[in-house]
Hints:
The complex is a heterodimer of chains A (about 220) and B (about 270).
Chain A: E1 3-8, E2 11-17, E3 22-26, E4 33-34, E5 45-50, E6 53-58, E7 65-67, E8 70-72, E9 74-76, E10 82-85, E11 88-93, H1 96-111, E12 151-153, E13 163-165, E14 170-175, E15 179-186, E16 189-196
Chain B: E1 8-15, E2 25-30, E3 35-42, H1 47-68, H2 77-101, E4 109-110, E5 112-118, E6 121-127, E7 131-136, E8 139-142, H3 149-155, H4 161-166, E9 186-191, E10 197-201, H5 203-206, H6 211-220, H7 225-238, E11 245-252, H8 258-269
Antiparallel strand pairs in B: 1-11, 2-3, 3-4, 3-5, 5-6, 6-9, 7-8, 7-10, 10-11
Helix pairs in contact in B: 1-2, 6-7
Amino acid sequence: MAKVILSLEGSVIREVELDKERITIGRRPQNDIQIENLAVSSEHARIITILNDSFLEDLGSTNGTLVNGTPIKKHILQNNDVIEVGKYQLKYLADSEAESQTTAEDFERTMVLRMPTAVQRPAPVRTDTLTKMVAARAPQPAATVNGPHAYIQIMSGPGAGRELALTKNLTTLGKPSVQVAAITKRPQGYFITHVEGANYPVLNGLNWMHRRTHSITTI
Amino acid sequence: MNRVTSKFDMASATDVGRVRAHNEDSLSAEPELGLATLADGMGGYNAGEVASGIAVAMVPAEIRKLLSSEKLKNLSDEAAQRVVAAQAVKVNAAIYAASQNQTKYSGMGTTLVIAYWHGDRVTIGHLGDSRCYRLRGTQLRPLTRDHSWIQEQIDAGLMTPQQARASKKRNLVTRACGIDPNVTPEVHTHAVQPDDIYLLCSDGLYDMVSDENIMNIISSLKANLPLAAKQLVQQANDNGGRDNISVILVRVLKPAGMAAGLLARFKSWFK
């Protein structure tokens, strides 16, 4: 749990755990942290804690609230922030355990991979001869994000022989309003999908195999 | 339904993401009304879903009522802004009342972004950190400025946008619907051009996918908006999907009143 350490001129007075949603600071006794000093307003400031985050708010005090030497009205407390109220200091210590837990969770999140799902829709048998494209699946799906880029090579038509690196997350092929397909790069590999046009792209394999498509090596 | 063909092409997608247990986002895309509403709810248990659900149910219903009573004809910018702001205020009151009446809903709230197209204009009202972007040509521009702590830090020059992206405090909003009895939505009106594409989204999208990438996806797949919407959500999930992800894409096919404007401009060339 996060806490603040109240001190005056370097000597610690007490530690207060931020165990409530609102902790008030002020001169009056009903405050959670009472500081009996005339430089402190009766209701000086408050700390609102939501889960792992604490939020300091000045309540319109006469002499103001400082964080690390800067006057603030509202402030998100960071670990080791020093709050100054009159001559008193409150050092904010974030909950280190909670912090490390969230990072661990973050790592976990990026590790979860869904099973590959084909985006490819079953294509009709007929094909347009505009472009013959081949989407190559990367050899090591887990490494594709930072791993080797795949290339596609145009096999026929005016641009035959040209190579196109699939560096972007999304690469489109074809002519707008005639036929467009898109190749998307995902953690599991590369996927091709139909975007527009009456004809669907044709891909080697299964029943939409086309004899002029060739697989392309990944580099 | 014997309505005239719609002037809008709209597509939407929403997904729970890959970490959260609930989808607290809600959205509504109403091509026949020229209205898109998106809300990202917050509050414990399922209160977030309730709050965002109230928002996207109320706004289209109210606008439909106003349209059928012909109160939305030939709106001036100011009048349109009043209408949109009034919707946000009504939603705020409804959510606030519900949260006061039932303890299980106490503290619930939602962000809200409403886009209403009228004539050759669009009026956008928002509260919180859900956004509206516009893709015009090759430029993707946010039309809303987040009501968030992080945006305040950027505006005050205390943080660079790069630092903001790395910050852990991106989830704090400074304005929201249903938290306080009163609320001031931010409302602006913009001119619409043919082929503009508008994107309404929750923070689950733009926290996970860079603006550049969003631009690339929309402009590459703009011929197929449902696919573009799906692709945006998929990209956010591939990048971690840490929050709920919601998107609405809107293309204005032919802004009313624009034909006359173009014709007039065309004629003026020959003078």
